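so i finally got all the pieces together for this one. its two components total, 269 residues if u count the protein bits. some of the lines might not be protein, just check the labels. i wanna see the whole assembly predicted at once instead of chain by chain like last time, that was a mess tbh
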Amino acid sequence: MFDIKELIRKDVAFIDDHCRLAEAARLVCVSDQLLLPVVNECLEPIGVVTEKDVLGWLCAGRDRDAKVADCMQTEFTTLDDSAGLIDVVYMFARENHREIPVVSDGVLAGLIKRGNLIKYLIDKKTAANRGAEKKMKCGV
Amino acid sequence: MTQARSLVKMDVLYLKPEMPIEQAIGLMRQKNTTSAPVLNDNDTIAGILTESDIIRMFISPENGGKEGTTVRDFMTEGVITEQVDSDISQISWCLLNHHFGQVPIVYNGRFVGVISRKDLLKFMMEPDG
């Protein structure tokens, strides 16, 4: 039985939209995340800022003292913590996301990385193959 | 002018086209990398295997889990590369205008290493970057 909570990484870096872009860049550089959820005071996601957003901003020679709000994406994808495995897999496959924030009752609960989803799928497949081999050995 | 050579990461995982797909995924997991270049015997680039390719493998009923499948069966071909003496602004343009997070760097057509968006961001955040 799939439980999305097995995939959610709870210990994630996030930021608020009043922070400086430089702080977002620093967080992206020191973490292994490609995306920072941007949250309000209730920890509800209001946007995301990605390494690509920050890099694009800096490469365009824009103001380095800008705020996160200036360059964050306000149209973004989230997954609910009740989503099923098929939803999760297709969300990653269809939209080429590498990380997706997860919400629980509208509040940031963590994020899912595509690599963790792959690990989960491989582990399940390996376990299923082992089960099938065991059955064959037992002549079931 | 900063060239790609000053940022290129050379100690990276690479795969071979004939490598079993399960082995390749295992190596990518071990190295915690989201994509790996696939090299021919002469170090030219045959393709790249990304997490997207692997996810597609799982949702492709005709391919998923078939015995004897190799990296070649799932890798993305026609990889965009940059030259080792390309200017950093060219690398930035490439990484900002395509969906991939790292670009392979070549010298005389042979693979040298990669530059990722994060490498570039770290460079840009340096005081004189």
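Chain A has a mean pLDDT of 91.
Chain A has one domain: 4-137.
anyway lmk what u think
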